[in-house]
Amino acid sequence: MIVILKDIPVLQCGRCLEYILEDSVMRRVEEILSIVSQDSELQVVRFAA
Ligand SMILES: [Zn+2]
């Protein structure tokens, strides 16, 4: 299954330029992933803090 999260607030590491998620954002992402329907292949979810 693929989940696309829109409007997610990401930070970019100043040293390695990787995109990183704050802990609070990561927890919200996990919540969203736990409630999205498991029976469709593609979900688009708008991230709301
Ligand atoms: Zn880094």
Secondary structure layout plus pairing:
Elements lengths: L1 E5 L4 E2 L6 E2 L2 H13 L6 E5 L3
The structure holds zinc ion.
Short overview:
With 49 residues, the chain is of the alpha+beta class. It contains one helix and four strands, in the order E-E-E-H-E. The protein has one helix at residues 23-35, and strands at 2-6, 11-12, 19-20, 42-46.
Can you tell me the residue ranges where pLDDT is under 50 for at least 5 consecutive residues? none
Q: Please describe the biggest sheet, giving its number of strands, its sense, and whether it closes into a barrel.
A: 2 strands, parallel
Strand percentage = 25-35%
Morphology: elongated
Amino-to-carboxy terminus distance: 23 Å
Instruction: Write down the domain tally.
Output: 1
Give an account of the 3D structure.
It is a single chain. The chain is of the alpha+beta class. Helix content is about 25%, strand content about 30%. The longest helix is centred in the middle third of the chain and has 13 residues, at about 25-35. Bound molecules: zinc ion. Zinc ion binds near residues 13, 16 and 18.
